[in-house]
């Protein structure tokens, strides 16, 4: 490749976010950016960049940047930090985002959206950036297979149609979001937007989540780290007796101060054996069978001095097929149990763990502790089990009362003195308060009933309705409201009724907080309106206005 002249006119594009001008160079195999003035320029040996004239270009690392090219979508890309005079958008960037260079019209065209952004020509001395030395013997092979030099982060999905499903127990494990420093937040945001654009991650609505921890790298970038320990602790275990095998290794974690703990471990021969057993268990992990609804279930349990475990099998053609495994360490108090109690605890814990599969199914429990088998075979005679026998035969439980209510009622009916005392008008006589009645108005719009209904389905921003009706003429009015504050109700009543039909003499309302507010009371006093409140929790006292919405709903289908 020939070296360009010192007055070559090149196409430049402005990044509206950072204000930098990027050189559009399809001859450069990768995208690069010059180092910042404050950066520690220490060349890294894992980068080998060459100019078009075969001179080696020092590289200092990578940085992820988000560009705003004016094409209405984000462009997040990993740039190589190299010793160049200006930032370069190379062929890898153009290929990934499907961008075309239009030199005639001085623009960059986005094929996916058919949008374009304008570029400018400028004179610059800049060689194209190559990742392969032009003099090496296998240059043609690397040119034929460019993915070997610029591997894509997007892995090709396998076409096997298999979906991995993790069986979990208990409520979902979730963690509250952690606040990050503004500087770390910006870096993590760019990192995740890049992973999202590369289709390495995707948005999820799963209730399972883990906390995010950000670790700074030596090259001033960040590494997002997920804490999966709590999440993995509730997943189904596929290894039989895993807790027993990992017991010695788990003991090393007691009193640990984290990864900075420099306390030496007693890596004994027993610990080495336990570690080898754990590795072998992973290598020999049993292949679980697909559950059959009609198969007989068998639950094998066992207990040791420091752990309990169980294995759920199904019997198909007289053969045991494993379905799932369960194991856990014993607590300090459970270790003091007798062998009988530990074996019984193993049965209880295994049945409780596999309850979702054992419920409403016949199953057999297998244990190597023979005394447990007699616990379910012992027969107790009726003479030795009197209390339970009696309680099992009780059809109804009643407690005799010392008061004969029927006799008391009959005596009250025949007691002449009691009837005379009740009829004499004493305080023992039940007296009902007489019902009051509304005074009928003498003219229209003299007595108005008012009520609020809602919330209703939104319509043009209105969700409530103020209903009013004249007691004399039965003339109804309804005014839509956006809210039911005292100010809104008072304004609606004044503008829709008082301004059109004059001020009423009596206004009947319920005990709603809107009409009991000081503002509404002040309006009533200013207009000279006598307020009449209904009884609490008694809508019949204002039945005329309460039945208005029902009548209107019944009339609507007729129109």
From TrEMBL:
Cross-referenced Gene3D superfamilies: 3.10.20.370, Acid Proteases (2.40.70.10), HIV Type 1 Reverse Transcriptase, subunit A, domain 1 (3.10.10.10), Ribonuclease H-like superfamily/Ribonuclease H (3.30.420.10)
Domain Integrase catalytic residues, every copy: 437-548
Keyword Nucleotidyltransferase on entry: yes
GO biological process: DNA integration; proteolysis
Claim: Mitochondrion is one of the keywords in the record: no
GO molecular function: aspartic-type endopeptidase activity; endonuclease activity; RNA binding; RNA-directed DNA polymerase activity
GO cellular component terms given for this protein: DNA polymerase complex
PROSITE patterns attached to this UniProt entry: ASP_PROTEASE (PS00141), INTEGRASE (PS50994)
Keywords: DNA integration, Endonuclease, Hydrolase, Magnesium, Multifunctional enzyme, Nuclease, Nucleotidyltransferase, RNA-binding, RNA-directed DNA polymerase, Transferase
PANTHER family: PROTEIN CBG26694, PROTEIN NYNRIN-LIKE
Name this polypeptide is given: Retrovirus-related Pol polyprotein from transposon 412
Species of origin: Trichonephila clavipes
Gene: POL
